Structure formats: C-alpha cells, structure tokens
Amino acid sequence: MNIRTVHVPVPDGAALATDVCLPGGARPRPAVVIRTPYGRDAHRAELRSWAAHGFAALAQDVRGRHGSPGEWRPYEEHEGPDGTASIAWVRAQPWSDGKVVAAGASYAAYCALAAALGGTGGGLRQDGRPGGAHRDGGPDAVIAAVPALGLVETAREPGGPERLWARAGWWAAHGDRRDSDPDALNRAVADDPGLLEHLPITRLPERLAEPLGRDLPSWSRLWAAHERGLLVAAGAAARLPLLAVGGTRDPFADDTVALWHGWGGPARLLLGPWGHRLTADPDAPPRARVNLGALYVRWARAALAGALEPTRRGVIALGDTGRWHRTPGTAAALDPSSPGGPEAARSWPFGSPTGLRLLHGAEFTADPGRPVRSDDLTTPAGGPPDRCLFLSPPLPRPLDLAGAAVAHLDVTADTPSADWAVRLTALDPSGRADPLAFGIVRRADPPGRAADVTVPLGTLGRRLPAGTRLRAEVAGHHFPAHARNPHTGEDPVTATRLVPSRRTVNPRGGALHLPVVARRRYVEPAPEICR
Length: 531
Prior knowledge:
It is a single chain. This protein is about 20% helix and about 30% strand. The chain is of the alpha/beta class. It has a ten-stranded mixed β-sheet with strand order 1-2-4-3-5-6-7-8-9-10, with helices on both faces. Helix 11 (about 290-305) links the parallel strand 8 and strand 9. It is globular, with a radius of gyration of 24 Å.
C-alpha cells in the first residue's frame, strides 16, 4: 500500500508533516492517528498494517521534530490543539467516515491523550476544563501504550526522587533538536564515566555540550515542574473508550494503571511482561507472546462500534508463563492492602526467620560519594555496610503475584532529608539474581527520630518457582538511575555539597507485602480486553 506525505495545517498556520496510508476501495473508512516526536518514518509498517485491516492510518511528526516546522517544546501547550486540529482535518477528508482513534506509545501516548482531553502541557485546556471526545474535536477512542504522562511524571518518582539516568538519556537523545540520537548519553558516559556524578545536575548541559554538539536550554524547565497527575485527573471526565497498555517492567507502569483506573469512560488495561519498548524477552516461550497489532485492531473495531461494555476491565501477565490474570476494575484489584480484593496480601515480616531474616546492615551509612548503584545487583560480602540486607527462606511452592507490592519500614536517619530505596530481587536455587520490584521515596523527618515509611514497589505480574528466595535491600541511594540525595535538605538538582547519612533499620518493625493470587482466574487477553 502506498504512503504519501501531506502537510496538515494547525491553528497558528504551521503545517505538520504527516504520512497517510489508505486501504483499497472508495468507501469512507475509520482512521487511526499517531502523533510522534520520534519520526513518522518509523511507523510505516504499522500504517500499512492498519490499512490492511481497513483503517486509514496516519503518522505525524509533532511540532519542531523531523519534518514539521516550529519549536520543539516537550509537553507544552501545543500538543492538545495540534492534535485536535489534525483530527478535524482527518474528518474533513473524503476517505474518512468521521471516526478516529488516537494512538501512540510513550510521548506519542501523551499526544493522543492531550488531543482526547483537549489538553495543554498540563493535560487541561487553557480554561482549566477537561476536554471531551468528538464534540471538542478530539478522537472517538484512545490507545495509550506505556504512556509518558508529563514532565513531572517522567522526571520524578511519585515519592519524589529524580529519574536522573532516564531523563538525561532522553534529553541527550531528543531534547532541543529536530532529529534523534538514541545512543548520545551512552557515548558521552563512555568518554566520561563520571559524567553524572558532577554537580549540580542543572549544569549537566555544559558537560554534554561538546559530545552532543549542541546546548540543552530546556533541561532546566524539566526540573522546574512539580505538579503531577493532571492528565489522570482530567481523564475522570472522559467518556470515550481507552485502551491502556503497559509493561510490568516499564518505569511508567504505575502511571498506566492510574490512567486506566481513573478513566471516566469504558477502560481496558493490558499489562504484559514487557519494558518500555513493549518487547518480549527473547527467551520467552511462544505462548507468552501477544500480537499487539492484531489486538489493537480488534479493540479499535469494538470501541468504534460501541460494542465495549461500559465498565473497567483489565488483564495482567504472570511473567513469561503465558498465563494472564483478570484484574477487577477497582482499586482493590491492584492494591495488596485492600481487604475486599481476590488477591491475598501475603506479608513477609522483617527480622523473622519465616519472613525476611536480617543478614546485616541494621545500621549502615548512606554515602552519596559511594552510593549503592542501580546497575549492579551484587551485594557486598564485607566492609562497612552501605545498605540493610534481608533474605527469605526458599518458597515451598510456586507463587503467583499480580498487583501492587509495598514495603513498610521502621527507620531512622540522622539527616534532615533521606531517600529510602527498597530493591527486591528473586534468587533462584543456584543464586542467580532476577530483579523483581523496586521503589524509592524521599522523606524529611526530624533527624534521629524513628519514622514509619511506606515504600510502594510497583505493580507485579510474576510467577515465582518453588525454591525461590526473596532478597530485600534497604538503601539510601539508587544511582545513576536516581539522583543522589545530598542529605543537607537542599534540592538534589541544584545541590553542590554531599554529606553521608547514618541510617538505622528496625529489623522487627516492618514487613514486605506482596499481592499473591489466591484464586487463579486465567483468561485470554484479547477476548477479555475487547468485550
């Protein structure tokens, strides 16, 4: 099928480069619109696939990227109006039957949602009202995969710490330029292994200027934003159907779940064993693989036909087993502490021989000069402890996990600000380590005063074989994935001075709570999502 490039006008007179692929035949068709900063050329196979299934398919470069004119300003006010103008243009074409699905992954998912909600950079129109569907020029349905919901959602964890490596990598690859260079940060770090250790973080663009060959003037704006959850809140007023697709290994999985759970119209959640690229483990068996393209087409047809039940439904994969578990559409579905859900919140008390026994580090030093690293799963065998370490007995039988995990800690820090990072690792009988869950929160408790700290560990979908042991690490840093807390009370983004923090973990004052599937209800994902 032939793809042609057109330039779609938007309200301020700019014309955005758009690839169009039409199915055969003369009758009007529904359309799928993808707006992306990552290059419309990358979607040509996807456009042909949609067209082969009877949809007019369009991929558009957002303003200031690749073939589209203007200034590239991520997450600012132009994405909503540009999206609704593009959808209005589609509806005016003779090949359009008026029905439009806005689709996209990562930033492109944000673009789809901004168009659906009449959004500005905060997810709302300039007058503060959430948008609607067709009546406001938006789409009739939305497919939002691994959605990157805004500056704050991508830059900071819900608990506060900054996602340093991911944001530095994204800005080096895509920020303040018309095209992309995905390996830019990796090359810069190869030349300067201590690149991200330099302070302050706000001056990172100065150190990147030479290897990148350009400035990053928008870097400071990233860290100036602090209000999160605006798009999720706006979604509560939506009435159009949503398909939210995510991966339990994606850093934005919890945002995907929150979007689905808060959506006002028919909402479906597909949470697979994937990372941000939605790719399966190459060693996964065939039964664990899902044809997302075919599922999207099936769901879009049902959504546009009004055939979806007006409810909230979802499925979550149990790792790479090929088994999928139905998630009821309530908060209890994914919250292990909710009393009414079908999942049992099994607890592993810290400091218990039948739960998680203390190995070492009930007292440790969190030194930002020698932080616990996010890219190293090994734990030190000796020396002064830099973390608190717990280990469970081997599991007597297989364990299915589907939902949210959380750790409750009884801890003390001697500094006015402290990050508490919990990393949960599954150890097979041979000792091989497999990351299972992670969470980090920032606290400002009075120095020396014990505090009850809750650390959300994300949404899990896994089957743990019999013989698996759980290893829990409690640390003060998770670098370079997250910026180092300087422990002085200063903003880690602007701080230039780092001091160590003495930590105490009460080994009998907390517990790990995991969402154990008490009643197995395996389903096939496509029929469950598309009804």
